[in-house]
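Ticket closed. Logging final result for Zinc-binding alcohol dehydrogenase.
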Amino acid sequence: MKIKAAVMRTTGGKLSIEDINLSEPKHDEVLVQIKATGVCHSDLNSLEDATTPLPTVLGHEGAGIVHSVGSSIKHVKPGDRVVLSWAPYCGQCAYCAEGKVHLCEDAFGPMFAGTLLDGTTRLSDENGKIYHSSLLSTFAEYAVVPAMSCIKIPDEMPFAQASLIGCGVSTGYSAAVNAAGVTAGSTVAVFGIGGVGINAIQGAKIAGASKIIACDIKDENLEIAKKFGATHVVNCSAPDTVEQIQAITDDAGVHFAIDCSGNTFAAQTAWLSARKGATVVVVGAFNPTKELSLPAGGFHRLGKVLRGSFYGDASPFRDFPRIAQMYLDHKFMLDELVIKTISIDEINEAFDAFHDHNCSNVGRTVITFD
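Final structure:
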């Protein structure tokens, strides 16, 4: 079938709006009519990454309607509303058997190669194949995706808000609820108030934290954090950030610190801001050329836990519907995360906005398809 899509043909260039070919799904795949897709900073990273195979269709935050399914698919059917997960899991490896589906490696070889799980593509034009992004390629009217990427959501769920659940929303929420395991009455500091950090704040609030400290270098983001549940804010450009956090927590430090920034200095500050016996979770991706340094003196006496978390330890089939239902029950804020909606023809304007340092990076521009 012919579909309209935004195609990346050059590294760092503009996306080209084109009519391209999409093949039918195989037995373990689903054809989804994309109704909304968020434009995430990770898409910009892919656009500027010379290792991204060309040409490719980007996009990994998507929601839509199942159009057709492969012969082996039982959990969704045509007409179902779904949110798409860019990290499908195999259900058979040792990690999946332990319930740690976020650690499954099944998808990553094909993902980095720009294919679907079987090592081939469903996208093409007259010159040959076009690659997929994150196994989804949601910057298009339709997408063929792995069956395990399709998570059914309630029919009442609006598509623009639903699309955000697949990445930043679930990562942040799950980082607080799953990875950190925030407890009622505890104190929490969240570093990096962007699309992930703002939802870590929501997760901490839902978990019942008594004090939630938003930490960022942008005063605008800190003000937004208050609307999502932060009880205190600290501008991390101040040299006494750790002292400020300790003062808020009666000089003890926080029970849980969550670093969503991807900045090693922020992660160090998170560690220093946490009390004895605390849990420090790093969900942001560090620059691989950097090193994380922590004070060695008395380390064994602190009893702290430092751990990394991929996707916030999310379990999509459990957490996506849970977040959707909390939104419908007015317990989770998603409307406020949709900065504006645009058409696919305006997609390059969304990418240009990432370079405007005066713009907040808390919400998302969402592409909608009528």
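Residues 171-311 form a domain with the Rossmann fold fold (CATH 3.40.50.720). No further action required.
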